[in-house]
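User: My collaborator sent over this chain with a note saying "see what the structure looks like." That's all I know about it. Can you take a look?
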Amino acid sequence: MPGYQAPQDTVAQAARVPLALVGVLRDARAAGTLAEPDSGIMGLVLARQAGQLAATIAPDLPAPVLIRALMAWSQLFGMISFELFGQFVGSVDPAEQFFDHAVDLTATFTGLPD
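Assistant: Without extra context I'll predict from the sequence alone. Here is the result:
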């Protein structure tokens, strides 16, 4: 919603999941098991946004890793929303195998080892 700002007392709780994902990526990078993606062609605006995100939450991780983490986080929340609201009914119901497969592909996409 344009102009929406979350109440300050909800920000820390909302940040737990993405920060947990960033922690996993940091640990993988420190262990030498994180496959870091090419930066690709992000465009100037996204490159600036990625740099600001890195500086804010994880200066030790390359910006392209954080962009993929953001994609993974939004995909995870989308899948959870689909499951909660019955959007998988009639396609992949029950959705456990789909969810497991999607999580495996997303982990690979973010650079985590198999």
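A starting point for your reply to your collaborator: Helices lie at 8-30, 44-57, 63-84, 96-110.
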